Amino acid sequence: MVNFDTVKAVPSADLLTPGNAMMLFVDHQPQMFFGAGSTDRASVVNATVGLAKAARVFDVPVVLSTVAAESFSGPLLPQLREVFPKHEIVDRTSMNAWEDQALVDAVKATGRTKIILSGLWTEVCLVMPALCALAQGYEVYVVADASAGVTPAAHEHAMQRMTAAGAVPVTWLQVLLELQRDWARTETYAATTEVVKEHAGAYGLGVTYAQAMIDPHAAG
Q: Which residue spans traverse the membrane (predicted)?
């Protein structure tokens, strides 16, 4: 029931903000991409880099992790590394990132309780840390288009499993725009629209057109 006396124009505590969220990127590596068949790999790369740039624009804490980088899976996705060239990468042996103490310590060190999670593969290296983090009280937002599984069914069933456990499915563009949330927020307006133009496909082209032909400040 709505209490009209308490209805105000204020954001919900459920919304992601630069002050309450962190991003965890898990196993965006060549070998993992080789096996990812649930969607177009180039789209996953684009979404992952767009998400990473959203973190950079809003200074959201980031944890990067790989599995068996030197012996099997290869280095972190170069385009992702380019966004965070100086970030430490937590390399693991465990498929479940949440069983690696260094990774958990890195997540804890951010002091954030909302985890924006993406990675490969959805049904293995994503679902396990998501369930573990949820069980320990974190809120988990799974970036579906910056993640991929071995097959469409594997990805979808893993997303369903995480959602049933309490995770929130989102997309990279949704995260970016939720962090911006107000086009009058001038300190991040230009950087946000640049990420949109670089990675948001038709929407990005629309922003480019609007800014060139209608108003240089056009965006939403």
A: none
Give me the half-sphere count of Cα atoms (radius 13 Å) on the Cβ side of residue 46: 13
* Length, in residues, of the chain: 220
160-207: per-residue pLDDT in tens?
999 999 999 999 999 999 999 999 999 999 999 999 999 999 999 999
Gap between the Cα atoms of 218 and 87, Å rounded: 34
Q: List, in sequence order, every residue forming a beta bridge with 41; answer none if it has no partner.
A: none
User: Rounded to the nearest 5 degrees, what angle is found at the Cα of 14, between the Cα atoms of 10 and 15?
Assistant: 70
Q: Is the dihedral of CA 99, 101, 22, 69 positive or negative?
A: negative
Of 64, 125, 173, 200, the catalytic one is: 125
DSSP state of 144: G
**Is residue 132 flagged as an active site residue?**
no
pTM for this prediction: 0.94
